[in-house]
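Query structure, 287 tokens:
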């Protein structure tokens, strides 16, 4: 080899600085690399692009409520196995797996608390538990959260994040659509506000029931919202679906969604809505 020719392989070994795993997350929109601690402190919203990563129910509750005011209710309600369902695994074994992975006992956390001093009853779904699927326990907990709002004469908020009805419970799951909707009917008769917040994703029987029955329906940016999946619809109607089909932005344009609100602005926006729908209608002595 010539003295001046370039070697095919370098003989210099460069030791790269190890970057601990789990410290950084890549934004799927902009490709930006975000420090996980910064992302968590920003409620899992990418600072520059505004992309909303999924968030757990308890993390959402912490960011939403006045400190020390939230009290969980009905935490002991859990799924039964009415059909003795078995596929590759027994249903109770799946439930135990979901409990371990999510740290929750069900796909929804319910309770009461205050937002800027305004009392509310709330149900917050968590997609990490069985994809947020609605079974008998989820329907019962949400119905009770609505009934507590009715009893205490306060507004009710429901944050949806779900793939739909839970197939392992069959008709018992589908019954929850009517059950929760009927409870909301009683809330409406009492002239108490119901605000529905749809997050990514909100699909199936949840969309077809309580998720779109709000006096005001709010969605987070970019949330996927619908009944059947886009591929199923396309195969059924044999037509090309319009761009952005089933996104929050598409549905707002077509009238299903009233507002699209960033998670970072949600607490203050709910205060403004609750003041308009609830506080102004109360007797002065109760404000």
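Result returned for the query:
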């Amino acid at each position: 080899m010539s003295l001046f020719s370039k070697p095919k392989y370098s003989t210099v070994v460069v030791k790269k600085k190890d970057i601990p795993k789990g410290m950084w997350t890549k934004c799927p929109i902009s490709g930006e690399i975000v420090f996980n601690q910064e992302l968590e402190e920003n409620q899992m919203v990418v600072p520059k692009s505004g992309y909303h990563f999924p968030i757990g129910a308890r993390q959402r509750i912490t960011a939403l409520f006045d400190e020390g005011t939230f009290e969980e209710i009905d935490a002991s309600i859990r799924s039964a196995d009415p059909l003795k369902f078995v596929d590759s695994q027994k249903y109770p074994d799946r439930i135990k797996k979901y409990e371990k992975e999510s740290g929750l006992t069900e796909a929804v956390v319910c309770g009461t608390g205050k937002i800027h001093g305004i009392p509310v009853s709330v149900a917050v779904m968590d997609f990490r538990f069985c994809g947020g699927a609605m079974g008998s326990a989820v329907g019962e907990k949400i119905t009770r959260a609505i009934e507590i709002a009715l009893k205490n004469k306060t507004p009710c908020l429901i944050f949806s994040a779900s793939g739909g009805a839970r197939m392992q419970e069959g008709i018992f799951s589908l019954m929850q659509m009517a059950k929760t909707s009927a409870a909301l009917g009683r809330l409406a008769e009492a002239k108490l506000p119901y605000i529905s917040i749809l997050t990514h994703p909100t699909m199936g029987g949840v969309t077809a029931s309580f998720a779109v029955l709000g006096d005001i329906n709010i969605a987070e940016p970019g949330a996927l919202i619908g009944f059947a999946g886009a591929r199923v619809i396309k195969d059924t109607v044999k037509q090309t679906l319009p761009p952005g089909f089933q996104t929050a932005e598409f549905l707002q344009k077509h009238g299903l969604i009233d507002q699209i609100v960033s998670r970072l602005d949600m607490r203050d926006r709910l205060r403004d809505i609750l003041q308009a729908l609830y506080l102004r209608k109360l007797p002065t002595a109760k404000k």
